[in-house]
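User: Please predict the structure of the protein below. I'd like the answer in structure-token form so I can feed it into my own downstream comparison script.

Assistant: Understood. Taking the following sequence of 157 residues as input:
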Amino acid sequence: PEGSNQDFSNELTAVEVKSSKATKPSVNIASELQLDWTKFDSLYLLVIHLDELSNGSETLRKLIEEIKAKFDNQQYLLGLFEEKLDRVGIPNGEEKHYDDFGFIIRSKRAYLVRDGFPALTNDIINNDAIHNVKYQIDLTACEPFAAVLEDVISEMI
């Protein structure tokens, strides 16, 4: 919600997270900057495949409530989390409206985005002339770039 090109980053490493229905072997990339690995020592694409369930037990509401409960005695962190939810369009108390559909996580895959990865960068598209590029990546083409999820998390923290 901070408006950066990647979802998570520290000084040297960044992670772009995408979710997709489990039956869909592709992800949408919102700009030519999301997977521009040239600015980092390491850039990862994390893909979470989900199945959507009508009236499923694992809902966005439940997930938000579980995260808030973890901040029970940490008001600063709870406030920060609520502020970020508000920035993405879920004001405090409005998570109750996100209970209609549940989900099941089918898989989590991580990929190291580097030279040869199927992605566009500013250098490739000539950023002075072409802007606001949106595209899809077929995930089967990413398999040679598979990374170990636990290693990605360790590198980020």
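That's the full token string. The first strand starts at residue 8 and ends at 9.
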